[in-house]
Known about the structure:
Layout: H1 4-20, E1 27-32, E2 37-43, H2 46-49, H3 56-68, E3 76-82, H4 86-95, E4 99-104, E5 128-130, H5 135-170
Parallel strand pairs: 3-4, 4-5
Antiparallel strand pairs: 1-2, 1-3
Amino acid sequence: MESHEFYMHRALELAAKAAELGEVPVGAVIVWKTTGEIVGEGYNLRETGKHALAHAEMMAIDAACRKLGGWRLPECAMYVTLEPCPMCGGAILQARIDEVYFGAYDAKSGAVCSVQRMFDLPYNWQPAVTGGMMQEECSGILSAFFRMLRQKKQNLKKTAAGSCNDSENMV
């Protein structure tokens, strides 16, 4: 079996694919712990697919279920670049994933440690959780993406303001 960092690096590669599409850069990998094989991968596709459920974790869970032939994913670990939201946390519980490793904490929507502790509630399944894995790299790709979006927005405002000023000068 590869190292935890190997799988998180793969999740970061998937997050970069999402960023290239203009999606929030989150990537997820599901590993069958018995063999170390990656059985599911996903990255955000909400904007591209115009679909609220197209989170990286959901895509990875779907792929793993299809590959392994069932809705339960015991003996599996998930590696995701951002702390799961409530929807994805619920899907992780329903899929019976054993372990969750995430990179960046999500102070606005994190359902594992930050906003709530979903996996500590008395559900019939509680995965083991490790947060902050490769946190700097995972936070960095998100920060760079949102910085780029803010810059684009500022440039659009400047362009719009500039064109208005130009038309005023013509009068």
